[in-house]
What we know:
Elements: H1 4-20, H2 25-32, H3 36-43, H4 58-64, H5 67-85, H6 90-104, H7 113-124, E1 134-138, E2 145-149, H8 160-167, H9 172-177, H10 186-212
Antiparallel strand pairs: 1-2
Amino acid sequence: MPTRADRHLRTVRLAKDCAELGARVRTIHCITGLPSREIQRMFFNDPQSIPRGRPPDSPEWYHSANLLFRTDASIVVAIYRRLRHAGFSPGEVLVGAYRHYRVVCQAPYRISFDRAFDLASHTDGIWIAKSPSFAVVTCPSCASEFLAALGTVPTADACPFCKLVQRYGNDPRVQTSFPTHPLPDPTAFQQGMSMLLWKNTGEADGDSQATSTPIPGDAKET
């Protein structure tokens, strides 16, 4: 059974992870429950390094954000909700989901950790939100999960991923944000297969010759 010290160390590690991902003191306090002064003392030795400015307010922001921001927001929260369904605690899930988002998407990242925290809060109705404002729904056309207002009936017209596909050929911003990867050269693949076949055939012939060659001392001399 975890001791009180174990639980405190786990909380401090979680706070450290949040700080390394760029979280505000307020965000770290809401996630971990650590006092704000203790957070500043442990993770922000230089007062100038403390993230400042107005904290994100997602409910209104999301509905007025452009397509690329709404797509990234949907990616973050969809990952977060999948991990939450697995039964992990919300703070640890948020850190894991945000890290995974930064692997899936390329820099510069449109969604900050504080924005992800705010989105998760208004999706689950926790931390700074008294009740949920968002839900993750599944598009009936492309089967992608995206963020929508609570109670929204999902349609292809509301799906940011369907819109990305529609705009991809004509929108340079979308192309830059989601670059395609070239397919491998089929000639190189064919050459590789030929070399592998030749190698296997050569080894098989060598094995046959080795089997047919008598080993000295095994056969009686006549």
